[in-house]
Design brief:
The protein is mainly beta. Helices cover 0% and strands 49% of the residues.
Length: 113
């Protein structure tokens, strides 16, 4: 049972930055992805993912060029560096493996205009 705990969210003005952390309960070779659930939405939106050792990274078009994802497999932690934040980035952010079937608590990111 692989579990994740997200942290690092907060309230930030447009143009600001935040760095989110995703702490896994153990080492995994699986690709790990960030998703977000915006207010009023029913479906989680894919944000970014990263493969073992960070060899391959993928980003949604909405965040490409503004966000970066990194992975520390020694400490079982994945990060999401978010720069130039926009109000449309406001959401609860979650991390999990691509095939994972459950969501953690997530971390709230609120970007003011």
């Amino acid at each position: 049972q692989l579990q994740f705990v997200e942290s690092g969210g907060g309230l930030v003005p447009a143009g600001g930055s935040l760095k989110l952390s995703c702490a896994a309960s153990r080492f995994t070779t699986n690709t790990i992805a960030w998703y977000r659930l915006a207010p009023g939405k029913q479906q989680h939106e894919f944000v970014a993912d990263i493969t073992l050792n960070g060899r391959v990274k993928d980003f949604s078009e909405n965040v490409k060029g503004r966000f970066d994802i990194s992975r520390d497999d020694v400490n079982n932690t994945v990060y999401l560096q978010m720069d130039n934040l926009k109000p449309e980035d406001t959401a609860v952010y979650y991390c999990k493996t691509l095939a994972g079937r459950t969501w953690g608590q997530g971390t709230q990111v609120t970007v003011s205009s």
